[in-house]
Amino acid sequence: MEVYLGIDIGSVTTKFAALDEHNKLITAIYILTQGKPIEMVQQGLKQINQQLPAGVEVRSVATTGSARYLAGIIVGADLVKNEITTHAVAALQYNPEVQTVLEIGGQDSKIIIIRDGIVTDFGMNTVCAAGTGSFLDHQALRLNMSIEDLSRQALQSTMLVRIAGRCTVFAESDMVHKQQMGHRTEDILYGLCQSLVRNYLNNVGMGKEIKAPIMFQGGVAFNQAIVKAFQEELETEIIVPPHHEVMGAIGAALLAHEAITNSQHPSKFKGFGISDMDYHTSSFECKSCPNHCEIAQLSLNGQILARWGGRCDMWERSPIS
Fold first, then answer.
1. What is the pTM of this model?
2. 27 burial type by CB count under 10 A (0-12 exposed, 13-18 middle, 19+ buried)
3. Which of 213, 215, 230, 307 is deepest in the core (most CB within 10 A)?
4. Residues 45-88: pLDDT tens digits?
């Protein structure tokens, strides 16, 4: 069996997806990054190797996500793509008619506008947490409940309670105020979900023409209260695809398949054995100009594999021996 592997490594979660030669999902993995991208890539490779049938051949690998370049160096990726491209490709594979993709992750969120199968516009929010999954996680933790309980209770709301959601600090203060006023917890929680949706649409989606079909991707799409809030705000159906939490990895795998099909070269994949290798990261300050950039470097057994992080490409293009 031929396998095409996609790896999406973000600041909060790391996702793997393995597709067969017909682009059908064989298996997928969704784990927390925990601030350890190298270890999670190695752990994910080990897990997915255990789940794949014996004797499979990994024909091609692609990486995406905030740590895509680092992951690409470690695994020997044939392709490194941004999240906008991979999420759009996965959405179009599921529904070729999709025109808008809403994606909310743990630390960032994005909107992708697609017309006639082509990405024509996009928006991202990587600064404010008020439109991301961590916004809900923090409030669930404060209320001593799981994120699943938050979603379940929010769906039981029967009365509108508006929560100021422009900032996580204001939202928390407003929630406490509403609790002191005697509002029911479920109404406050649904108001919180509505505030996240408003924040997302007013910031990430500002100025964008949001047209149906609309697909909702990312881990936050597990939260049915958020799905309901989006449907009410946009007054249309919101499609949540199967495996929505690993759509970035699926898109990367689809692109990996396409890339190797059009290439005469074998895959650069280093194999599953890299799961047991001892990689080391370090950094130093470049003094070649007044910017004094901090340069990160990855090494294995004392040999430097890659350097990155400068404002120019001096270290990226310098020969590494």
1. 0.88
2. middle
3. 215
4. 999 999 998 889 999 999 999 888 888 989 999 999 999 999 99
Q: How many CB atoms lie within 10 A of CB 209?
A: 11
Asked if the structure places residue 92 within a domain, the reply is no
Whether residue 217 is contained in a domain is answered as yes
Range of the domain at 9: 2-87+248-276
d(CA 217, CA 171): 24
DSSP 222: G
Is residue 147 domain-shared with residue 195, that is, in the same domain?
Answer: yes
Look at residue 57 and tell me if it is in a domain. yes
Which amino acid type is present at position 268? Answer: K
pLDDT tens string 192-218? 899 889 888 988 888 999 999 999 999
Position 219 in a domain? yes
CB 77 within 8 A of CB 62: yes
The CATH number of whichever domain residue 43 belongs to comes to 3.30.420.40
DSSP H or E segment with residue 305: strand 303-308
DSSP character at residue 11: S
Helices (H) and strands (E) in the chain, counts: 10, 13
Q: 155 and 167: one domain?
A: yes
The total domain count for the chain is 3
